[in-house]
Amino acid sequence: MIKLDKQKIIAVLSVAALAGAGYAGWQKYRRAEVHVAAPQPVAHKASDTLHFDVNAPQLTFIQIKAVEAFPEPLVEPLSARIVYDDNRTARVFSPINGRVVKILAETGTRVAAGDGVLALDAPDYAQAAADSSKAEADLLRKLEAYDRAKLLYIAKGMARKDMESAEDDWQQAKAEAERARARLNNLSRHSGKAGELYVLRAPIDGVISERQVNAGSEVRSDAGNPLFVITDPAHVWANVDLPEQAIDKVKVGQAVIAQVDAYPNESFMGKVAVIGGTMDTFTRRIQVRCELDNPQLKLKPEMYARVSPIADEHSSLPRIPNTALFTQGLYSHVFVEMSPGVLQRRRVTLALQGHERSYVKEGLKAGDRVVTGGALLLNAELSGND
Where are the alpha helices (DSSP H) in 56-122? Predict the structure, then answer.
């Protein structure tokens, strides 16, 4: 029994020793300073300022970044989805049935209006070409018959009703030729001959962003999905779900700033193009469409984004991560690096505080170096020196 009690005592002491080992972090360097032959302490307080030796180990616990300025948003970032700009996008379907013989353009290829993207073996196209040739021949024959009938009628060699009948035949042949010609032109921009392949052509200038067909595939004119999607990728839309309480913050033509997870340090400028006329009954949201410029083609359709309407695209406020903020009394503060090893606690006034970042109205300017990690440790150090 005595042996068992000793084991318990040893176990308790071991656990206590392990728990106490984690406390070695920030404070152990201050105690260790007593054994270091240095002429000055590692940190001391002067008003709201901490002074560290440039090689002080405490500085390894903090992160410092320069403040950047961004346009001031009116509300917190709104959830959005990047989609094609439908005013600059064409979804290409085949107007006839057929079998794919050759793919003429690949995904990512830039095409001009009229360029071929697909070659089809299409019996309907051959039939349309044959019908057009037949109708043209019949029109010529009926026109010659009508010219002869007019001459005979003038010479009193034909009754008027026979001449009018020949004219009717010519008019019908003319209408049929125009119908066959229009059908052929609708299928292709060139009047090919029977037996030629049908070439599906790009209706607009742009880049092929999607291809959903392969060589040898059978295509139908009533297919549900487009064979190709051609778009101008330098322009995209962002569809925003606008909460009811933020309706008064957004208007058509207003500037917006968008961000995506793929490029967390970049912003994309745009403007509000359309505000929906009705509100969703269940989500209490209004659909808002924003036009975004995408000159470097970084934004891709179906990306999720965060869009913020801004007050003025020509004025900016310093933006900091919320990890840089801490509360002292009733006010928000940050630590600013005045020089290497010199950190000053500074009171700031916030214009807008979001979930991840805040915009500072007073107390900071662009270029200030702010402690973004470890600010609470510094504040505890400063409070401990009071």
Answer: none
Who's near 268: CB < 8 A, 6+ residues apart?
Answer: 257, 258, 259, 260, 292, 293, 294, 298, 299
Over range 61-72, report the average pLDDT.
87
Percentage of residues in the chain having pLDDT higher than 90: 34
Alpha helices per DSSP H over 49-157: 123-154
- What pLDDT shows up at residue 93? 93
Q: Is the pLDDT of residue 347 over 60?
A: yes
Coil/strand/helix, residue 49: strand
- Token code pair at residue 319: 């933006």
Distance CA 326, CA 332 (A): 6
Q: How would residue 385 be classed by pLDDT, with cut points 50, 70 and 90? A: low
Which class for 282: exposed (0-12), middle (13-18), buried (19 or more C-beta within 10 A)?
Answer: exposed
| Average pLDDT value for residue range 78-96 | 93
Q: Which helix (H) or strand (E) covers residue 209, if one does?
A: strand 206-211
Total length of the chain: 386
| Residue 357 three-state SS | strand
| Burial of 52 from C-beta contacts in 10 A (0-12 / 13-18 / 19+) | buried
pLDDT tens digits, one per residue of 355-367: 788 889 888 998 9
CATH topology of domain 43-70+316-384: 2.40.420
CATH of 78-85+233-309, one of 2.40.50.730, 3.50.50.60, 3.40.50.11810, 2.40.30.170: 2.40.30.170
What residue ranges of the chain are covered by domains with CATH 2.40.420.20?
Answer: 43-70+316-384
Q: What is the dihedral of CA 379, 380, 385, 386, to 10 degrees?
A: 80
Give the dihedral sign, CA 30/31/34/35: negative
**Comparing C-alpha atoms, which of 139, 114, 133 is closest to residue 192?**
133
185 within 8 A of 191, measured Cβ to Cβ: yes
Which tokens in the block code for residue 8? 């318990």
CB distance 86 to 198 below 8 Å? no
Within 13 Å of residue 346, how many CA atoms lie on the same side as its CB? 21
Candidate CATH numbers 1.10.287.470, 3.40.190.10, 2.40.100.10, 3.40.50.1390; the one for domain 123-196: 1.10.287.470
